[in-house]
Amino acid sequence: MKITDHLSGTDKTLFSIEILPPLKGRSIESVYKMIDPLMEFNPPFIDVTYHREEYVYKKREGGYLEKISIRKRPGTVGICAAIMNRYKTDAVPHIICGGFTREETENALIELNYLGINNVLLLRGDPIKTEPHFAPEQGGNNYAIDLVKQVVSMNHGKFLDEDLKDSEPSDFCIGVAGYPEKHFEAPNIAMDVKYLKQKIDAGAQYVVTQMFFDNAKFFSFVDKCREAGINVPIIPGLKPITTLKQINLLPKTFHIDLPIDLMKDLENCTSDTEVKELGIEWCISQSKELMKKGVPCLHYYTMGNAEIVKRIAEKVF
Question: What is the CATH number of the domain that holds 195?
Answer without folding.
Answer: 3.20.20.220
